[in-house]
Structure formats: C-alpha cells, structure tokens
Q: What sequence folds into this?
C-alpha cells in the first residue's frame, strides 16, 4: 500500500491532534503505570472512532486510503477537533491538488477598487504574496512598495521585518493566528516549491516562527482584530475582514482592515 505527499500530511495532522489530548479528557480511565505515548494511544482513538486499530494506524502512517465522511466525522469527535480543524481534516482527505498555480497577471481593476477604500486593504494569493494594496496599507500596515515582488510575502515580512512586528500591539495573538492560517494552505499544497522555500526561510531565520510552527495549530480565516501603532505612536484598532475567491479566482484573498470606532 503506497503513500502520497497529501496522505502523509493527513497522517501527520492526525498524530499531532492525538498527542495533545489527555486520556482523562477523552473519558478514558487511567490505570497505574507509566504511559510512554503522549496523549492518546492509537488503539484508543480507533476505539473512540469505531474503526479498527489497523485502519487507523494506516491513516496515521499516510497510507493512500480514502476514508468516508462518516469515518472522518467519527475521528473528528474522538480527537475533539475544532470546527476549523475538522474542515482542515476534510480538506486534506479530499484535496487532489498538490501544487498552486504559477503566478500570473491579475486584473488591474482590483487596484482601482482598493484605491477608493478609506481604510487599509490588500489582496494576497494563497502563498501570502501581496499582489495589490492601497495607500492606507502603506501608511498603517507596511510599505510593501519597498519590497521587490519576490520578497513581498506577508508572512515572511511579518516575522523577518522588525519594523513590521514592532507596529503590532497584539503581536502574540496575531502571529499565532497568521501561522495557523498559512499552515492550513501549506498542508493542502505540500509540493508547492514556493511554499516550501518560504517555510525553509522562516524556520532558519525566525525562532518565533519555528516555535509557532511546532505547535501545529490550524485556523481558517475568520474575522479578527489587530492593534497597530502609527507614526505618531497612536494605537489604531482594526477589525480584519477577509474574502476568498476574489472575482471568482480561488487563489486570491482580500483583506480589509476596518477601523474599530
């Protein structure tokens, strides 16, 4: 039975979620003696999921098998996955695309629309590369025009540009969320060369990123908040809204930082 890069990611995600759950939280009675396995054992997850130990072991080992939706739902309950994590589990199970499209030219009318907005707003691709942005983004978030296109990746700048990090008051919360969202994209497209190079760069150059990556958190994009210091050292609070499939293009994501009044 063969493995694929997608099924390996699926198995690694299951393992990371299993190891974080304490037996007591899953309703498993503890007996005397030392447990060598962090979190739950495979056979315990298999029992709670109503599948055989062999079948669950194959899933964690990345065997190229195709679990049904019922099995995935049972595993989600056993591992106590959040709604975002469950969505990620299904994405990994049924995603057949292992690479993102090669970067292409996008409709410039999107830039015209951004320029009309009175608050920071920008559009990225799924790798987090900033494609379009307006003047308020330059002023309040980061001067993306100072970067060459090959380096204009939001996540990379967030961790490797101190001036960017220093602007953000709720850095811990925002960076944790940003890595968890980016990881979801990465694990859906694990063969993408640009994503892999970004991952290597961030791991090598940022201990903060490495620590967050090791937590294996997953989030889908949701409404969030960010507090930013402006040039006058005034704190500006924004509600972050996002939209995917911009103009029908599933590779584009629109971020809007609406001021909180």
A:
């Amino acid at each position: 039975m063969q493995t694929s890069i997608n099924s390996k990611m699926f198995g690694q995600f299951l393992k990371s979620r299993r190891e974080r759950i304490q037996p007591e939280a899953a309703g498993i009675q503890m007996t005397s003696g030392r447990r060598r396995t962090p979190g739950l054992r495979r056979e315990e997850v298999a029992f709670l999921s109503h599948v055989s130990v062999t079948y669950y072991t194959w899933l964690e080992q990345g065997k190229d098998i195709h679990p049904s939706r019922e099995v995935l739902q049972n595993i989600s309950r056993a591992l106590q996955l959040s709604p975002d994590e469950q969505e990620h589990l299904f994405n990994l199970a049924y995603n057949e695309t292992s690479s993102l499209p090669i970067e292409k030219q996008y409709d410039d009318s999107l830039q015209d629309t951004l320029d009309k907005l009175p608050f920071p707003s920008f559009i990225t691709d799924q790798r987090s590369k900033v494609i379009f942005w307006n003047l308020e983004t330059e002023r309040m978030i980061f001067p993306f025009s100072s970067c060459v296109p090959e380096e204009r990746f939001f996540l990379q700048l967030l961790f490797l540009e101190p001036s960017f990090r220093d602007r953000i008051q709720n850095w811990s919360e925002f960076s944790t969320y940003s890595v968890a969202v980016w990881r979801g994209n990465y694990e859906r497209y694990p063969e993408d060369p640009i994503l892999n190079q970004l991952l290597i760069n961030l791991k090598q150059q940022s201990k903060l990123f490495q620590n967050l990556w090791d937590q294996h958190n997953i989030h889908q994009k949701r409404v969030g908040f960010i507090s930013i210091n402006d040039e006058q050292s005034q704190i500006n609070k924004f509600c972050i809204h996002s939209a995917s499939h911009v103009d029908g293009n599933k590779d584009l994501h629109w971020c809007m930082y609406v001021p909180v009044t």
Observations:
- Residues 28 and 44 are 8 Å apart (CA to CA).
- Strands lie at 121-125, 130-133, 224-229, 235-246, 249-259.
